[in-house]
């Protein structure tokens, strides 16, 4: 029997997420406040006994000049993805509800892992001239249920999409991420899992006098100066400072320790900075920034290790370094960042990716053409 869909309060939504070990930071109510260009709604799945059994943050973006919306559930919704009646009981009621809200297309990112590669497997793939992409390398482990879920989505009419940017309609989250498993591991074991270069760099930073401190709202401008420099160096379009100020205010109003800021100082200079977000037992290294100056004192390794230690103290089951490139050629300027993350001794993780469902095929096609022209 299909579940009933309805709008729920922020309090109900937050309580549902808090009762789970993990949910994406993009599936908490406050994330809607971070995205003022989108209209946010907390959505609840209600069973026959009136219990809330699933929740999702839906972001609605209007199509130019029309009262029709792209409905987006980033890294969500938080439902029973293993349910045998996933289509009939969970997803079809969601599509029906979103259509009544004016959605012409629905985009979601099932929080379902497809496969994993150990740090050793990723290093071997980078060294292998035949491996042009991560998916060309043999995975260390597979999740058979994820392939079954993908098959069911296709049969329903969902279309898998490649991730894009995050501005406007080109909403997209990384399909490939790098994570360090913490569950059941003492900090000493996590430290031993770092590669030799990482351990050496952490010692070098300590010897050079690098100090990593937690910052506050007033330090976001120092973070932003480094972030703007990083954007120019790494060739990406930076978000404006008010975005990070809004993120800090919104997330920490919901939970005073939801978002943290870390800064690595050396002899009066701020050399690197990063934001960290926590939801339940999942901790994300969210945004990072650094200067090209004084790289020899290794501020980035020192800052990451401090964040990993603090995440462990918080009881994290996983420390998530977020997106990685899946392109392994030397010409890819993001390969250096992948090598840096591999040094943590964690694992590359491929999620099921993002999926679209056109509720109005004509408008969905028009959106595709609009994005192609942009």
TrEMBL record:
<keyword id="KW-0961">Cell wall biogenesis/degradation</keyword>
<dbReference type="GO" id="GO:0071555">
    <property type="term" value="P:cell wall organization"/>
</dbReference>
<protein>
    <recommendedName>
        <fullName>Methicillin resistance protein</fullName>
    </recommendedName>
</protein>
<dbReference type="GO" id="GO:0016755">
    <property type="term" value="F:aminoacyltransferase activity"/>
</dbReference>
<dbReference type="InterPro" id="IPR016181">
    <property type="entry name" value="Acyl_CoA_acyltransferase"/>
</dbReference>
<keyword id="KW-0808">Transferase</keyword>
<keyword id="KW-0573">Peptidoglycan synthesis</keyword>
<dbReference type="GO" id="GO:0008360">
    <property type="term" value="P:regulation of cell shape"/>
</dbReference>
<comment type="similarity">
    <text>Belongs to the FemABX family.</text>
</comment>
<dbReference type="Pfam" id="PF02388">
    <property type="entry name" value="FemAB"/>
</dbReference>
<dbReference type="InterPro" id="IPR003447">
    <property type="entry name" value="FEMABX"/>
</dbReference>
<dbReference type="InterPro" id="IPR050644">
    <property type="entry name" value="PG_Glycine_Bridge_Synth"/>
</dbReference>
<keyword id="KW-0133">Cell shape</keyword>
<dbReference type="GO" id="GO:0009252">
    <property type="term" value="P:peptidoglycan biosynthetic process"/>
</dbReference>
<keyword id="KW-0012">Acyltransferase</keyword>
């Amino acid at each position: 029997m299909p579940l009933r869909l309805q709008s729920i309060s922020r309090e109900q939504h937050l309580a549902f997420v808090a009762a789970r070990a993990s949910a994406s930071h993009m599936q908490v109510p406050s994330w809607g406040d971070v995205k003022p260009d989108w209209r946010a709604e907390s959505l609840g799945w209600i069973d026959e006994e009136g219990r809330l059994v699933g929740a999702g943050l839906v972001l609605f973006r209007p199509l130019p000049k029309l009262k029709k919306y792209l409905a987006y559930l980033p890294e969500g919704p938080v439902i029973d993805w293993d349910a045998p009646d996933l289509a009939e009981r969970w997803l079809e009621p969601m599509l029906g509800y979103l259509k009544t809200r004016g959605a012409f297309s629905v985009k979601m990112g099932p929080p379902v892992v497809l496969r994993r590669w150990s740090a050793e497997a990723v290093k071997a793939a980078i060294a292998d001239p035949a491996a042009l992409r991560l998916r060309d390398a043999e995975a260390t482990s597979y999740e058979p249920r994820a392939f079954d879920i993908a098959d069911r989505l296709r049969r329903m009419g969902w279309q898998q999409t490649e991730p894009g940017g995050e501005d406007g309609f080109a909403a997209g989250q990384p399909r490939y991420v790098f994570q360090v498993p913490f569950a059941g591991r003492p900090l000493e074991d996590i430290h031993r899992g770092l590669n030799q270069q990482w351990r050496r760099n952490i010692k070098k930073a300590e010897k050079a006098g690098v100090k990593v401190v937690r910052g506050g709202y007033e330090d976001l401008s120092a973070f932003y100066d480094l972030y703007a420099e990083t954007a120019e160096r790494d060739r990406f379009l930076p978000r404006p400072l008010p975005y990070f100020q809004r993120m800090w205010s919104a997330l920490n109003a919901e939970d005073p320790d939801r978002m943290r800021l870390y800064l690595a100082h050396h002899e009066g200079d701020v050399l690197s900075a990063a934001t960290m977000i926590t939801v339940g037992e999942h901790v994300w290294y969210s945004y990072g920034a650094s200067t090209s100056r004084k790289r020899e004192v290794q501020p980035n390794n020192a800052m990451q290790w401090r964040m990993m230690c603090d995440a462990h103290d918080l009881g994290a089951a996983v420390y998530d370094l977020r997106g990685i490139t899946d392109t392994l050629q030397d010409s890819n300027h993001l390969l250096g960042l992948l090598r840096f993350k591999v040094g943590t001794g964690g694992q590359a993780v491929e999620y099921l990716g993002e999926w679209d469902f056109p509720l109005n095929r004509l408008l969905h096609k028009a959106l595709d053409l609009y994005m192609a022209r942009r």
